[in-house]
Amino acid sequence: MPLVKPLSPDHDLETQKLAEFFNETLGFCPNSVLTMQQRPAISKAFINLNKAVMANEGRVTSALKRMIAWVSSNATGCRYCQAHAIRAAERYGAEQEQLDNIWEYRTHPAFSDAERAALDFSLAASQVPNAVDEDIKKRLYEYWDEGDIVEMLGVISLFGYLNRWNDSMGTTIESGAVESGEQYLGKHGWEKGKHH
């Protein structure tokens, strides 16, 4: 059972309107947002930040952003966010081989060197203590410009918030996210954990 129960999707009409964004990304409004509605200023600010972070202003694709989110969520252990990120990656056109082999991104041929640099950045930035170093920086600048790096760190930081929110809340995971988690991550031991 979650720490705080989600409220009805129509609890706050402004949040409900903004949350239409998630119908595209996930196919449903996440329970995390429904819980944030306890303080509508938080739910609205979060959705607007999410939309800004996920906007594509450079060369970082929507699919890569969701794989960055998955690596970040995997590093922190948030099973709720792992399932959401892999579901969104699928919905935004990540290659089937990448979805099936996300755990092996460092060595699997479905991932380019540029993608590996971005995903290694996500892993290093998501660790405590932070592991971003000169090697990570050098590799990033081989493939990406400063705007791209800002977009990537926006995703990593957004999911840092979500990982803490959902793991602390024990947010109930939605059936669609469970399906994606089981399909792509189950072979590596993914399960709902506390997110029943």
Distance between the termini: 6 Å
Number of helices: 11
Class from helix and strand fractions: mainly alpha
Can you give the helix content as a percent range?
Answer: 55-70%
**Large-scale geometry:** globular
Rg (C-alpha, Å): 16 Å
- Assess the beta-strand content as a share of residues: under 5%
Largest sheet: none
H/E series, N to C? HHHHHHHHHHH
Query: What is the arithmetic mean of pLDDT?
Result: 97
Which regions contain 5 or more consecutive residues with pLDDT less than 50? none
Question: How many E strands?
Answer: 0
List the helices and strands and how they pair.
Layout: H1 13-18, H2 20-25, H3 31-36, H4 40-54, H5 62-76, H6 79-91, H7 96-100, H8 113-126, H9 134-143, H10 146-169, H11 175-185
Helix pairs in contact: 4-10, 5-6, 5-8, 5-10, 6-11, 8-9, 8-10
Protein name: Carboxymuconolactone decarboxylase family protein
Pfam family, one: CMD
Domain Carboxymuconolactone decarboxylase-like: 40-120
Please provide a written account of the structure:
It comes from Mariniflexile aquimaris. Helix content is about 65%, strand content about 0%. By secondary structure, the chain is an all-alpha fold. The mean pLDDT is about 95.
Can you give keywords for this protein?
mainly alpha, 11 helices
Give a quick rundown of the structure.
Helices cover 64% and strands 0% of the residues. With 196 residues, the protein is mostly helical.
